[in-house]
């Protein structure tokens, strides 16, 4: 995702307490955001199996609800 979209996802995650559904473009996994790290431009996600991961903004995209 581009930096503007990353900023928007992080705002929703950290300021609005939303969990945004993302897809990892490298491995196809999905996960819900629970935090962001601005310095490294990464997003922390909770995976469907309950595991946690950290994805670079360049390797993920928001899953549209439509």
Largest sheet: 5 strands, antiparallel
Helix content: 10-25%
Ends: how far apart?
A: 18 Å
Going across the major beta sheet, what is the strand order?
Answer: 4-3-2-1-5
Name the CATH architecture.
Roll
**How many separate domains make up the residues?**
1
Quickly count the helices.
1
**Low-confidence regions:** none
* CATH class term: Mainly Beta
Number of strands: 5
Integer average pLDDT: 95
* Strand percentage: 35-45%
Structural class: alpha+beta
User: What is the CATH topology?
Assistant: SH3 type barrels
Rg over CA atoms: 11 Å
H and E order? HEEEEE
Shape: globular
Structure, explained:
This protein has a five-stranded antiparallel β-sheet with strand order 4-3-2-1-5. It has a single domain (3-60), classed as Roll (SH3 type barrels). It is of the alpha+beta class and 66 residues long. The model has no long low-confidence stretch (mean pLDDT 95). It has one helix at residues 3-15, and strands spanning 21-24, 30-37, 42-46, 52-56, 60-62. Strand 3 (42-46) and strand 4 (52-56) form a beta hairpin. The protein is built from one helix and five strands, in the order αβββββ. The radius of gyration is 11 Å and the shape is globular.
Summarize this, please?
With 66 residues, this protein is an alpha+beta fold.
Describe the SSE topology.
Layout: H1 3-15, E1 21-24, E2 30-37, E3 42-46, E4 52-56, E5 60-62
Keywords:
5-stranded antiparallel β-sheet; alpha+beta; 66 residues; SH3 type barrels
